[in-house]
Design goal:
The chain is mostly beta strands. Helix content is about 5%, strand content about 45%. Strand 17 and strand 18 form a beta hairpin.
Length: about 425
């Protein structure tokens, strides 16, 4: 068992460089195929060993099991520029519509859980974040006149978890979080006059960083037909991207924002669950993400108060449904909404990271082949969302960011 766990973690770590996910900002809309099939709802109802990614307390309720799966994800991103080219000192972009060429990703996930006693469990959930991934052509000088332009952010989380059922159907849990992230950027050389360190701005290959944090949660029964759950993850403090200390605020700092989850799950209709979750993500607390794009002044990129991506905090409402059609088969559906973290004032740099999505529509199933083995599947669609604003460095131009997303996931669960 220990060997299999180690192999699973290693395999996921080696595949992590392909990560990108259906996104609320750059966090996934859910973790694990079962939860994703209900638009990411599940704070109050845990059903697999990916539970620690949402609420570590839920691990004590899922039993002895291993889960592993993979998602096929396709984000379709583009930006459009309207308006004339203006002479310097304006920084005009080439008019037209341009699509990112990174449109397909494979994202694995893995979980393990074991009951240590009737009231305690130990497990680990391994999962990823992505979404800040773009690659624009270098034709006509490229997006920012530095050739091919884009960024790539990959994040991997390992969450060993202890959960304790301290009273009947009442549990708390804690997950120390080990985080690893990689980043690269290219085509940004034209911003050198605005950088505090032009040698650490663009085209320096991939840089990486480790970091640590924790997540705590409660999950339990409120009445015979109603469950509740809450969790909180602190800011995961990461090492700095030294190769890009002239790009990100605070000399290359890129911490991972704190996150709150709260939810209920109601089973008042036989064989049905209705889930309602609220998630809050504090992007604005991370200067490299939350600082506004403007004013972008000479030498300011990379300083403590340097330009960021201008992302606002997100509050996402998730509604999920599960129907246990038979002992061997369950159906799921879900919808979620969260206002885009990107406002019209911050479109310029967000050409690189157009995390504008608001709606997600999902469906899923689980089929049991035996008492031990089950297959779960999920598909989702996030319709096109457009954010339009003025180019702050060439006010005669407008920039529009647009993206839609589709994807599907499958996973196997083994109870032992």
């Amino acid at each position: 068992m220990r060997i299999n766990l180690a192999l699973g973690v290693f395999a996921l770590a080696t595949l992590a460089p392909t990560t990108a996910l259906a996104t609320n900002g750059y966090l996934s809309h859910g973790y694990g195929t079962i939860s994703m099939g209900m638009a990411g709802a599940g704070s109050a109802l845990s059903q697999d060993s990916m539970a620690a990614a949402t609420n570590p307390a839920g691990m004590v309720f899922v039993g002895n099991r291993i889960d592993g799966g993979i998602e096929v994800f396709s984000p379709r991103r583009e930006y459009s520029v309207d308006g004339p080219l203006s002479p310097p000192p304006a920084f005009s972009l080439q008019p037209g519509t341009y699509e990112s060429s990174k449109n397909g990703f494979l994202i694995p996930h893995f979980g393990f859980n074991r009951e240590l006693s009737d009231t305690t469990a130990f497990g680990v959930s391994v999962f990823a974040n992505g979404g800040m991934n773009t690659d624009y052509s270098g034709d006509n000088g490229g997006t920012f006149y530095g050739g091919r332009a884009g960024v790539n952010l990959e994040q991997l989380f390992i969450a060993p978890t202890v959960a304790w059922e301290f009273a009947d159907n009442q549990a708390i849990g804690i997950s120390p979080i080990i985080a690893y992230q990689r980043f690269s950027a290219e085509g940004l050389q034209s911003f050198a006059p605005f950088s505090s360190d032009a040698s650490a701005l663009s085209g320096n290959g991939t840089d990486d960083a480790w970091g640590y944090g924790y997540q705590i949660g409660w999950q339990g029964e409120i009445t015979d037909t109603l469950r509740g759950g809450i969790s909180w993850r602190n800011i995961v403090e990461m090492g700095e991207f030294d190769k890009y200390q002239g790009l990100f605020a605070e000399q290359g700092d890129f911490d991972i924002p704190q996150m709150f989850n709260a939810g209920i799950a109601w089973s008042g209709i036989q064989n049905h669950w209705i889930l309602l979750d609220i998630q809050h993500i504090r992007y604005s607390e991370i200067n490299s993400v939350g600082n506004p794009v403007m004013p972008i002044t000479p030498g300011s990129l990379g300083t403590d108060q340097g330009a960021g991506f201008g992302w606002d905090d997100m509050t996402i409402v998730k509604l999920g449904w599960q129907w246990q059609q038979s002992p061997d088969h369950a159906w799921r559906a879900g919808v979620s909404y969260g206002e885009s973290p990107i406002s019209s004032e911050d479109v310029l740099l967000n050409i690189l990271a157009p995390g504008v999505q608001e709606w997600h529509f999902t469906g899923g199933f689980t089929h049991g082949f035996s008492e031990n083995l089950e297959l779960s599947g999920m598909a989702f669609f996030s319709p096109a969302k457009t954010v339009t604003g003025t180019n702050p460095l060439a006010p005669d131009q407008t920039i529009s960011l647009e993206m839609y997303q589709v994807g599907a996931s499958a996973s196997l669960g083994w109870a032992f």
